[in-house]
Amino acid sequence: MAETDTLEDQADRAASAGEFVAARSLLERAVEADSASQTLWIKLSAMRKASGDLKCALAAIDSALVISPLDFSALLTRAVILDNLGDPDAGEAYRHALTQIRSGEAIPAEWQAAVAHARKRSDEYRRTLEQYLAKNLPPGLTPAEWSRAERFISNRSQNTRHFHQEPGDFHFPGMPEIEFHDRELFAGLQALEQATEAIRAEFDALIAAEASEMVPYVQYPDRVPLRQWKELNNNPKWTAIHLLQNGWRVAVNARHCPQTMDAISKMDQPQVPGASPVAMFSLLAPRTRIPPHKGATNTRLTCHLPLIVPPNCGFRVGATNREWRVGEAFVFDDTIEHEAWNDSDELRVVLILDLWPGARAGRPAHRRRSDRGKQRELGGKASSRLTQPRTRAARWCPLSTLIEHSLAGSWQRGAQVELSPSRGDEFLGVAPDLNPRTRFRTMRRFRPGQ
Predict the structure, then answer these.
(1) Residue boundaries of the structural domains of the chain
(2) Which runs of E-coded beta strand occur in 263-402?
């Protein structure tokens, strides 16, 4: 051990004098005697890099990472070396280093320039990767598939992530996790949109006559541990006028909206005693935000038909933001984290109803509406006749699989993205007037997440 310390001290003095080759030789002898010292491997990598041997510098820093795979300074050093080598994996290496820094974590002043450089290079890599993937998408995609392809690319480049279903009550296995579902899966959507003017007129009349029963959208006892609803619980800033609630017709409201109820009756809503169908006008007051939250169960979806949408309103499901447009309905999975906001000075109103998932969203077949009628008439003894939806087999193939097949080969054979040259030596290189011992002591002092 004493011999190792002596060799390390001699190497430090040689490096300070700018004798990088001599320092490298001393450190190579030191790691032979103590191969478990991460500090020695990091110093050896620096001396090999300073003497112009980048490949051996990379091998040394890889040995340091074997000892401590999550060491930030070693990960960042590796990214810089790969960048100097022109390796297309440099961008990903920068990202690996940056993931060690927790969100909001204070970065020491002496590391801020290096971290800023890493973020810049990582962003460049993501943009180049996105451009490459977009250019190589398979031809002939439908608009819905194109949307999924864009999200695939965004996820792959780490600009977004996949959000999972997190129902509050129960989760039925095997249901696909899709933020916004394809319109083509819901045959009644267009007819619902065509009734927008009539629905809006009935809503206006209902409000003007003060005949509606309006209740807070969120109503929980104060003892319930749901902190995100503290501000909106029993608050009139977010209210609902129920037309169908937990499977029951709310006559006090529904009788004033015959055309709305007729339009809703043509939709394929769940029939679950005590739970569904559900339909309501949702009113969001000016300057009100609904916090991120999730729905109760993933066995049904939620449909929005916007009726009154002032500027500066928005809606997010998972990683996808969508603007409400009057008369343009959409269907989403409310067990995926979602939120809404009205940053305007006017009221926002949306008709909300629940729907069965479409056939390709995990529901193998649709029951005919006539059969649903028989289910009510027969007291729950439903007809077993089912109609199979028309779907093209190719559409069942996940788009991500199509993209993987079309891109993986060329990506792995060397058609990777290339970053513009950037040495990064101003951050992690060893200058003749820099004492390596001081530099490595600084590295050890910044341990993200600790």
Answers:
(1) 1-165+396-450, 183-357
(2) 279-284, 288-293, 301-308, 313-317, 320-322, 330-332, 338-342, 348-355
Domains 1-165+396-450 and 183-357 share a fold: no
Number of CB atoms found within 10 A of residue 231's CB: 14
Q: With contact defined as beta carbons under 8 Å apart, do 278 and 354 qualify?
A: yes
Count other Cβ atoms within 10 Å, centred on residue 34: 16
Q: Establish how many alpha carbons lie within 13 A of residue 378's alpha carbon, considering only the half-sphere containing its beta carbon.
A: 11
For residues 256 and 69, give the distance between their C-alpha atoms in angstroms, rounded to a whole number. Answer: 66
pTM greater than 0.70? no
- Summarize pLDDT for 292-311 with one digit per residue, the tens: 888 888 999 999 999 999 99
Express each pLDDT in 308-337 by its tens digit: 999 999 999 999 999 999 999 999 999 999
Give me the numbers of helices (H) and strands (E) for the chain, helices first please. Answer: 17, 11
For domain 183-357, give the CATH superfamily: B-lactam Antibiotic, Isopenicillin N Synthase; Chain (2.60.120.330)
HSE toward the beta carbon, residue 274, CA cutoff 13 A: 0
The SS3 assignment for 306 reads: strand
**Token couple for 374:** 């028989």
CATH class of 1-165+396-450: mainly alpha
